[in-house]
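For the sake of transparency, this paper describes our internal protein records without simplification. The tokens are whole numbers drawn from a learned vocabulary of local backbone shapes. One such record is reproduced below, unchanged from the form in which we store it.

. . .
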Amino acid sequence: MDTLWAPWRINYVGKKKKRKGCIFCHAKKSALNDQVIFKTAKSICLLNKYPYNNGHIMICPLRHIGQVSRLKEEEVLDIFKSFKKAKALLEKVLKPQGYNIGLNLGAAAGAGVTGHLHLHIVPRWFGDTNFMPSASGTKVISQSLDELAKRLRKHA
């Protein structure tokens, strides 16, 4: 049997003490780190630390709000400009064949962070789904977050 090593996942599945507060608010306060790709006047773009697929990006408003109805018009425009920029970066760096794009609003919809609205961009390729998730509960991500963040920032 082959062994797949993903040591960064231990922070997610282990009993490590979780950081208090909102992950997006922490990210916006920091300088560019291993997850943040770029910031704008109204939004931030960062890699998902526990991605569904390689290149899984999230974009959120800088303001801590959880409802679409509370977004100001300038935030909506900025988030969509950031979405266009992030998608162009993924096109250039990873060349995906498709995307899943969306918002998970509320815990019932699968939102892991319910209080801070965020848009998901998940790159997809033909053949990127296989037996691993269904047979063993394992997802194979072929690139480290650090390496991918450096490649995306280089073109941002």
